[in-house]
Amino acid sequence: MRTDILRKTALTIAATAATAGGIAGPAIAAQATPGAQAATATVQAGRKSSERELNVRYEAQPNFYYCGPAATRNALSVQGKDINVDAMAKEMGTTEDGTNSINDITPVLNKETGKNVYKSVEISGAKADSKQADKLRDDVVRTVDDGRAVVANIAGTATDTDGTTHSFEGGHYISVVGYRDNGKTVTIADSANPNTASYRISIDNLANWIATRGYTAS
């Protein structure tokens, strides 16, 4: 029986090179994530927007095992926060084996936001079911509408809306910073490589990418 959700999280090693040309080197300068801008649809007649994207002050991860702290840093940047990834890595217990669990991310997000709003959610099976995908969509829309980003722990290969594959067989962390079509498509900020810093993926593909692991949302 598993006693801790989502172990073995986070190495963005050789698998990353196969998708996006390798991991960014140290001291990547901050840059705007392509496509990560403020809300793009107008609320009309008291109804919420069907799409929204948050402003991300993107930074790539400085090494192959810092995807957890880097994804958290990018997520917090949408709230105007700029927290040192080394400090967060220490809090998360990150080592060269990565960041163990999404449960190590959630307390850091809550500490830095000053509110106990983030909660870890597990997708325990090998594939997400429709109920889990619907919950993920609701969680993303609610969190982004509240001006926050979701952090997800993923593993394996997924295809984005442009047909590009992203493969992290050893596990990886990403930020979810926007949505379209009422959450059926979401925007990813990916710290692995600045050349693929931002892309969109269907909520169903994201849910299956998270399967066996989990995410944290408010």
TrEMBL record:
It comes from Micromonospora craterilacus. Pfam families: Peptidase_C39_2. It comes from the Bacteria. The lineage of its organism: Bacteria, Bacillati, Actinomycetota, Actinomycetes, Micromonosporales. Residues 1-29 form the signal peptide. Keywords: Signal. This is Phytochelatin synthase. Residues 54-192 form the Peptidase C39-like domain.
